């Protein structure tokens, strides 16, 4: 039982350390709206990068043709009806645009947050409009977009926050948004 704990601890330390390190996978191209989009550069026959580090507020285009954007975290105090209870939480607006040729199933989106390498719990606070991915059963058609707002419990004092997104839970392609919250 000690070995899995040690492996998790090492993974957490690597995640925290890597968020402060620039990556060479970051590329930049222009979208139709003029916003820079990080896009993985993969040469034919080479392995896809497992992770690309991003700043909050940026966009990332996955190889599957889905482009995501994550807002800067907005701090708030959860209501008394929120679950789980927390003194403070941060909310993110996540934009999902399907630039692919097939419908994208929104339920495939995998989002996880961690504070200094420790997993953060998602906050559901219907009073303030944080209900998770309510349209998870819907498809995002090609050339269409949608937005979801998610919230996560954070400590009362500012801390290093990592938000990882995958187009599907089994995808090796990860966009890791890092910053202070």
Give short descriptive properties of this protein.
40% strand, 181 residues, Immunoglobulin-like, mainly beta, 8-stranded mixed sheet, 5-stranded mixed sheet
Word description of this protein:
The chain is mainly beta and 181 residues long. The chain has one domain: Immunoglobulin-like. It has 1 helix and 15 strands; from the N terminus they run αβββββββββββββββ. The strands form 3 sheets. Strands 1, 2, 4, 5, 6, 7, 11 and 13 form an 8-stranded mixed sheet that branches. A 5-stranded mixed sheet has the order 3-15-14-9-10, with helices on one face. Strands 8-12 form a two-stranded antiparallel sheet. A hairpin with a 2-residue loop joins strand 9 and strand 10.
CATH architectural arrangement? Sandwich
Number of domains: 1
Q: Point out poorly predicted stretches.
A: 1-18, 20-36, 39-46
What class would the helix/strand composition place it in?
mainly beta
Strand content: 35-45%
Counted by DSSP, the helix tally is: 1
Q: In this structure, how is the largest beta sheet organized?
A: 8 strands, mixed
What would the principal axes of the Cα set say about the shape?
globular
- CATH fold node name: Immunoglobulin-like
* N to C succession of SSEs: HEEEEEEEEEEEEEEE
Distance between the termini: 33 Å
Helix share bin: under 10%
- The count of DSSP E runs of length 2 or more, i.e. the number of strands, is 15
**Rounded mean pLDDT score:** 81
């Amino acid at each position: 039982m000690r070995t899995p704990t040690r492996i998790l601890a090492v993974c957490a330390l690597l995640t925290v350390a890597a968020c402060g390190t620039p990556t060479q996978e970051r590329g930049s191209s222009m979208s139709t709206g003029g916003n820079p989009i990080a896009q993985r550069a993969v040469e034919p026959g080479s392995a896809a990068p497992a992770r690309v580090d991003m700043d909050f507020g940026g966009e990332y285009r996955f190889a599957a043709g889905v482009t995501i954007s994550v807002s800067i975290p907005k701090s708030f105090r959860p209501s008394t009806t929120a679950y789980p209870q927390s003194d403070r939480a941060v909310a993110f607006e996540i934009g999902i645009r399907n630039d692919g040729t097939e419908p994208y199933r929104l339920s495939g989106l995998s989002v996880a947050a961690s504070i200094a390498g420790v997993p953060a719990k998602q906050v559901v606070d219907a009073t303030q409009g944080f209900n998770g991915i309510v349209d998870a059963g819907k498809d995002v058609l090609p050339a269409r977009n949608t937005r979801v707002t998610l919230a996560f419990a954070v400590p009362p004092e500012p801390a290093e926050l990592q938000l990882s997104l995958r187009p599907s839970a089994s995808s090796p392609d990860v966009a890791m948004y890092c910053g202070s919250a």
